[in-house]
């Protein structure tokens, strides 16, 4: 059985990510940026709460990126590290930050693609060490056995209508 690896992100790491995203947004002129896991879960966004359907955006971007990785394999490439979608009004740029994290940027036609790519590359270089550190952290014991038993009992009581 393979143990699924996840991310444990500290408050300090989250603040560092948010600062990098704000700087990237300001420098590149993009409308919206999100960090999402490759499993499709949102991590953080800039600006916060900008996109009303962030969960769908995150999961679809991750799915699209996963499909792109399969295409890379078919073409005998080790990997493709970015994905770009161009529309009439909006563009979507997805870059890989780490094996578990993607950077998703949405911007309009008024924003230069080259500028987005340049600043995204710099942001990925700044973000990558944060996620290496987050992946390498030891998993602390989140609850002791007594607390876990009490929590399980409380949840069962909620679903059976007892208190």
Structural features, described:
- With 163 residues, the chain is α+β, with helices and mostly antiparallel strands.
- The chain has one domain: 2-Layer Sandwich (Beta-Lactamase), CATH 3.30.450.
- It contains four helices and five strands; from the N terminus they run H-E-E-H-E-E-E-H-H.
- The protein has a five-stranded antiparallel β-sheet, with helices on both faces.
- Strand 4 and strand 5 form a beta hairpin.
- The N and C termini lie far apart (38 Å).
- About 4% of the residues have low confidence.
What's the rounded overall pLDDT mean?
83
- What's the CATH class label? Alpha Beta
Structural class: alpha+beta
Percent of residues in helical segments?
Answer: 40-55%
Order of strands in the sheet with most strands = 2-1-5-4-3
Number of strands: 5
Tell me the span between the first and last alpha carbons. 38 Å
């Amino acid at each position: 059985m393979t143990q699924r690896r996840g991310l444990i992100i500290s408050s300090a790491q989250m603040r560092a990510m948010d600062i990098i995203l704000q700087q990237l947004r300001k420098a590149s002129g993009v409308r919206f940026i999100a960090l999402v896991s490759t499993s499709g879960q949102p991590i953080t966004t800039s600006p916060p709460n900008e996109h009303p359907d962030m969960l769908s955006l995150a999961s679809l971007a991750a799915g699209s990126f996963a499909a792109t990785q399969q295409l890379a394999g078919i073409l005998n490439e080790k990997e493709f590290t970015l994905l770009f979608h161009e529309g009439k009004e909006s563009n979507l740029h997805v870059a890989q930050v780490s094996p578990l994290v993607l950077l998703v940027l949405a911007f309009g036609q008024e924003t230069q693609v080259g500028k987005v790519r340049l600043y995204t590359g710099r942001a990925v270089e700044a973000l990558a060490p944060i996620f290496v550190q987050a992946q390498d952290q030891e998993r602390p014991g989140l609850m002791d056995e007594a607390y876990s038993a009490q929590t399980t009992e409380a949840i069962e009581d909620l679903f059976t209508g007892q208190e």
